[in-house]
């Protein structure tokens, strides 16, 4: 493949976005959606070609690189608009454009609400713009281009979360996402500046050059385990916590569900939120030099996975469950890359993109069929009414809980095993002797069990049992009254083929995605560890060891996890299918009230931030920054200068403004004389 | 003329210009002010011609001719204005004309 074609990959969606924006209201849903889908599909075709080119070269071709033009050249630093496609990028490109194209197609069917007819063009223009920005992020060969994409996806995320901006809550959710991301971006920028500053004469923004420099001269950033490199890695990771919704900046992602469901699937599940993991993988050579930072990443990832899972267990909004599940799964990915299992973490990015996109699109189909009902307590029994959606959702469910044979099983298991087996010295957060990997494994395994529970709960409440909906929306009080609700209102129906076809494709990928990277104990020539071998050159500069545990433990541990998962599914089945009588009742007799309410109220994190951060900031802004600094100091200086001039004029105006031309001529002559004199003296 | 160097010419020009300038700035009679302006213009002409001779170029001479032409026009307009001022207030004393005062 000619590397020059790389430039076309992001160009197609950009062109699509511009074209749709120019057509604006003249483009109907089908036209705008058709253009958008076509553009992303063409990008996808090129992406798969790129992947095939790299894959079939068996390592002979390290990467494809194409330089469009020189962008910035300052001193010794040159920044190009240039694209780099190494195996890591190529896989990510395929995920973004492939899953992206399916979601675009689905959106054509989904966005058919007549109330949105005037604005669907906006939706598709933003969606295409998002794909463009995401491709810049992953294909840029330097930090700056990546950062443009990094901010671009944040912008598109904001625009799409607030797509229905007339709803104030939705608009606020968009702002929340944007501002929370800015906090992370600030950290990312500081880390970048520090890296740039540390390199001194050798400063470069290109990933390839940076890798070469750091491998050759690790002492530039303080050497392996140095304070400087740890600080840089932690600050960059701070950026990742914002974009990829990790503790402490995860709060925006659940609120981001305000956007249309395809947006949640594409941006807030499959692609944008994984860019933090992508960034760390891309800079694996840097992160591997900072064991403390790696320990922090793995720990934050594991804790986020557990924390989000506890919240997901009691949510009743189907999209909220999926949102917290996404936060939790992202935590898994960070756990993977944190322990140094870059391939495993990235493998989970890929499989998660398949099954989580599928879950969101399936949930979208359910919401669509239920006429914008998102409360699972009003669903139930939908499998018989929506066979295709339900069937594909069941596949996604099996994949996310890690049922043997599905894609999620392989990727999750690999992360867990490599976490267990990681060399503790690589995660020197609490010293090299501390058995951090084992502890993280326990958290990971518990989270896996909890994932199985809440996902089973979601599937059982939605698709099994008796249908509890059927009110319609006439009940203005919004309280569920399921015993009498049968029989009237709209009946759910299967969605159109335009919507279920992408579901079917994603279901196949969720089932078979594991074939990309079969574990070593299933030996199939060419498939075992395929992704691992493919990505190996990318992570070669970050050697990690996984001999912290006896390899004979691998299969027993997997069996143990599997047992926990199946037990969770059984409990969920018992609670939500076997005994559906008290289904909509809270299960608070089973767990202490405080735990239940804590989970339901998201452990009051939003309230905590509101009280400790937002309130004081607003207060200081209003009372000090606005009332004192702005109104008094800034305005005071400006108005004061004007007032002072006025007073001076009042006093001296009488003297100067005589109305006689000769006075003015005198001043003119005197001024000229001063200038001439100054020139004469000053030379 | 050949014996006169550049400096005496410039000196004379400067003296003439200063006399003219002081006249413009201090005299109250509008006619005297106009005459002083003529003095300043001719001081400049002298400098032009002096430099032109010194440098052996004709540009200065050409400029001097232009200045004379402009000065003639200016004198015509100026005298007309003075005439109008006189008709308006029956005096040409500039102390009486302070309409520019805001």
Order of helices and strands of chain B: HHH
Number of helices of chain B: 3
CATH class group of chain B: Mainly Alpha
Radius of gyration of chain B: 17 Å
Description of the molecule:
The complex is a heterodimer of chains A (683) and B (102). By secondary structure, chain A is mainly α. Chain A is 66% helix and 3% strand. Chain A contains 24 helices and two strands. A two-stranded antiparallel ribbon of chain A has the order 1-2. In chain A, strand 1 and strand 2 form a beta hairpin. About 3% of the residues of chain A have low confidence. By secondary structure, chain B is mostly helical. Chain B has a single domain, classed as Orthogonal Bundle (Helix Hairpins). Chain B is 76% helix and 0% strand. Chain B is built from three helices and no strands. In chain B, helix 1 runs antiparallel to helix 2 and helix 2 runs antiparallel to helix 3. Chain B is elongated and about 50 Å long. The mean pLDDT of chain B is 90. At the A-B interface, helix 24 of A face helix 1 of B.
Q: Which key terms come to mind for this protein?
A:
heterodimer, A: 683 residues, mainly alpha, two-stranded antiparallel sheet, 24 helices, globular, B: 102 residues, Helix Hairpins, 0% strand
Task: Give me a quick take on this structure.
Chain A has 683 residues and is mainly α. Chain A has 24 helices and 2 strands. Chain B has one domain: Helix Hairpins.
